[in-house]
Every structure is written in C-alpha cells, then in structure tokens.
Design a protein that fits this description.
Layout (H helix, E strand, L loop, with lengths): L24 H11 L4 E4 L6 H12 L3 E5 L6 H5 E8 L2 E8 L1 H8 L2 E5 L13 H4 L4 E3 L6 E3 L5 E6 L11 H4 L3 E4 L5 H11 L5 H19 L10 H10 L5 H8 L7 H15 L3
InterPro entries: AAA+_ATPase, ATPase_dyneun-rel_AAA, CbbQ/NirQ/NorQ/GpvN, ClpA/B, P-loop_NTPase
Protein name: ATPase associated with various cellular activities AAA_5
Organism: Alicyclobacillus acidocaldarius subsp. acidocaldarius (strain ATCC 27009 / DSM 446 / BCRC 14685 / JCM 5260 / KCTC 1825 / NBRC 15652 / NCIMB 11725 / NRRL B-14509 / 104-IA)
C-alpha cells in the first residue's frame, strides 16, 4: 500500500479548515458588505466552502453564529421558536423558547441560513422585515415586535440547479448582495489540501489538484454532475489516500456518491490517469 502521510491521522485532528479562496478579495469584499449593514447571499456549488466562508466572516467580525439548515420541512417554529410546557412556582405554564432568528436579532449575532432555496417559499416572507431597512419582525408566536440589535447580520447560502431547489423570489433576493463562491483551484486548493487533510506528499497533492481541475471541467460541460467536483469530497479522498491507495480513496469519497454507473466510471477513468500506478 502506498500511504503518503507524515501527519496525525484525521481522528487526531479537530475543527474545520479555514476558508481559502483563489480570489483573495472575496473574503474582504463580503466582510465590507456586512460592515456596511448589508446581508450577504453566497451562491455556489455544494462543497465549495460556503459554510467555511460564513464562519470566517463571523470570526472576522467577532460575532457568534446562529444557524438554520433549510429543508422542505422548515416551518416558522424552526425559525422563530416554539412553545412548550414548563413549571413556574409549582404550576404548569406555557413557555416560549426562542428560535435562531429571534435569538440572533435580539443578541446581535450572525444568522447563517444554509440552502435557503430549499425552503418552501411560503415560509420565507417572515424574514422580509428583518432583512430590509426596518430590521424587525412581528413574532406570530408571541405577538412581540423584535427589533434587531445593531450587530445583527445575515448570510444565506444557495446551491442553484439542484434537485429540490427553487428560484428565490425577487423580493427576498433583493434584500441581499450576492457573492459567487466557485470551487477553489490551483495553488489555493493545494494549500487547502495541505492545511485541511493529512496528505503531506507534494506529488500526491499536485495530482489531486489536477484531478480536481478535470472533475470541474467535466461538470461544467455536463459530463458529470456538479457534486462530482465537490471540494469537500476531494478533501475526503485526500485524507483516505493516506491510509489506502488513492484510487480506492477516490472511489469511496467521490465516485461512490454518484448514482449513475457511467458517471462513476468517468470519475475513476480520470483518477486512473493520475493514480493508475499508485
């Protein structure tokens, strides 16, 4: 087995890798928009680092983050909170537990809304008042008007063109400034691999960078689905390759996530051109 490591195994590492972009101005520009009181929409394919970028921006701004992961089951309670039974002075009472939106507004935190365009459109208008110049919303669960803390800001992320997504309505989209987050490539990707995975050997890092470029090109021309080019999946393959042959690592981490056998074969054919003898 050709194992290329030289570092601690993934089990020994903690935390998520920092955001690295091959367009250095992306982080600075998004930070500038937030400091100007704008809300930010990150648009890019799955695995391109949108969540890590949001975390990096929260760190730069010194803000705690509240998160909402959207799905077709997202409802007002998931956003605003819910009522539950509690005990006060020996009596059963109805208590209100704040949701992430209300908590972020009240405490001046960053609200990160992942996969915004997966949520049902009828749920999202409750956010309109919080996202425009009013910076407030009326909580239908309590009838309270929640006024946002001056530090409150929102970052939302979307993956366009995926199953289960729908276009954002214009009223909601206009409340954001939009930043595209493409897959990191080239030397920036090599740096990310070195920092975020256990892979240390320069020759294998270079091969994975070139394989990523091939996967991105194949996805751009429709030969592969976009998820085949996921940087998250590539990093998984890099980690696995320190414990097994790289081709097996690519099969498990990249090709195995695809449902079409022809697409799986194409991924492995591309990988074989770099790791055929590994």
């Amino acid at each position: 087995m050709d194992v290329d490591s030289g570092r601690e195994t993934p089990l020994a590492r903690r935390g998520s890798p920092r955001f690295i972009a091959d367009r250095p101005h992306l982080v600075d520009d998004a930070e500038a928009a937030l400091r100007l009181g704008k809300h930010v929409l990150l648009r890019g394919p799955t695995g391109s680092g949108k969540t890590r970028l949001a975390e990096a921006l929260a760190e730069r701004l010194g803000l705690e983050m509240e998160s909402v992961n959207c799905s077709v089951d997202l409802d007002l309670e998931a956003l605003l909170g819910y009522r539950t039974l509690g005990i006060a002075e020996g009596r059963t009472v109805v208590e209100y537990v704040e949701g992430p939106v209300v908590r972020a507004m009240r405490l001046g935190r960053m609200l990160y809304i992942d996969e915004l365009n997966v949520a049902r459109p009828e749920v999202l208008p409750i956010l309109h008042g919080a996202l425009d110049h009013r910076r407030r919303l009326t909580n239908p669960l309590t009838a309270e008007v929640v006024q946002a803390h001056p530090n409150f800001c929102v970052i939302a992320a979307i993956n366009e063109g995926y199953a289960g997504t729908s276009p954002l309505n214009e009223a909601l989209l206009n409340r954001f400034v939009v930043f595209d987050v493409p897959y990191v490539q080239g030397e920036a990707l090599a740096q990310l691999i070195r920092e975020a995975t256990a892979l240390a050997g320069a020759h294998h890092v270079e091969r994975f960078v070139r394989l990523s470029a091939d996967l991105v090109r194949a996805s751009e021309v429709g030969e592969l689905p976009v998820e085949a080019a996921s940087i998250r999946a590539l990093l998984d393959a890099c980690d696995l390759s320190t414990q097994m042959p790289p081709l097996r690592a690519v099969r498990y981490a990249v090709a195995g996530k695809l449902s079409d056998p022809r697409e799986q074969d194409l991924v492995m054919e591309l990988a074989s051109s770099y790791f055929g003898g590994a």
